[in-house]
Design a protein that fits this description.
Layout lengths: L23 H11 L6 H7 L11 H4 L2 H22 L5 H12 L1 H11 L9 H5 L6 H19 L1 H11 L1 H5 L8 H11 L6 E8 L6 E8 L3 E7 L2 H17 L3
Antiparallel strand pairs: 1-2, 2-3
Enzyme class: hydrolase
Main location: cytoplasm
GO molecular function: double-stranded RNA binding; identical protein binding; metal ion binding; ribonuclease III activity; rRNA binding
């Protein structure tokens, strides 16, 4: 009896996606600024990889989108802890707008510029030529992703150190406004005996990694204003600020 012939293995010639990278010197400099040497440097590289730098099929695995999601939650926790610890006499109503002002995309972008980390973001040539390296949403997303990467690599304590360093100027600066525009608009409407403001999303455009929301803020019988933002929350705040300015004349 003849021995059974071994089954042939079908080989698939599927090209392996190319992992974005930084030079050894860039990676070293980036870690020095962050103040943490990564056990897994690939995680840090992923944190600074914009979705435009990889194919759409590999975006989830190779870009910073998932780390951004995690970092946003870590940032909110650290800032909330800091406010609770240092503003012991303030109510939840006072703390919430302070929190919002320090965790929004603009605050994250400011931290990136303060640390001069924008030069390390990995972008497509097209994104670079269109000014992506200075775009607030790009900087904010990368900053949140770096926080997420630090948290996964070394835990909350190390992530907190990075946030304290990156946000130092914002922590020391006296806030120009203790309440965000949505809160101010709500208080104005209540003071006038009017219903609370309404917010309606008019449109969402742009790619998933860089959306633009257009929102209308309105107060019954008093008017409305439309504004855009890189998130629904930012668009609502911008629309509220415009409407409040038209209603009160305040700058």
């Amino acid at each position: 009896m003849k021995p059974a012939r071994p089954k042939r293995t079908r080989l698939r010639s599927k090209a392996k996606p190319e992992m974005p990278s930084l030079t050894e010197n860039e990676l070293k400099a980036l870690q020095e600024i962050i103040g943490h040497r990564f056990k897994s440097p690939d995680m840090l590289i992923r944190a600074v990889t914009h979705p435009s730098a990889v194919s759409s099929a590999d975006s989830v695995r190779l870009s910073n989108q998932r780390l951004e999601f995690l970092g946003d939650r870590v940032l909110n926790l650290v800032i909330a802890e800091r406010l609770i610890d240092r503003r012991k006499m303030e109510s939840e109503g006072d703390l919430a707008p302070r929190l919002n002002s320090l965790v929004k995309k603009g605050a994250c972008a400011t931290a990136m510029r303060h640390l001069e980390l924008q030069r390390f973001i990995i972008l497509s040539d097209g994104e670079i030529s269109s000014g992506g390296r200075e775009r607030e949403s790009t900087l904010g997303d990368a900053c949140e992703a770096i926080i997420g990467a630090i948290y996964q690599d070394a835990g909350l304590s190390q992530a907190r150190k990075f946030i304290e360093k990156g946000w130092a100027p914002q922590f020391s600066a006296a806030p120009s406004e203790t309440k965000d525009p949505k809160t101010l608009l709500q208080e104005w409407a209540q003071g006038q005996g009017l219903p609370l403001p309404d917010y309606t999303v008019l449109s969402r455009s742009g790619p998933d990694h860089q959306p633009t929301y257009e929102v209308e803020a309105s107060v019954t019988d008093r008017g409305s204003a439309v504004a855009a933002g890189s998130s629904k929350r930012d668009a609502e705040r911008n629309a509220a600020a415009l409407l409040l300015k038209s209603l009160t004349g305040d700058t």
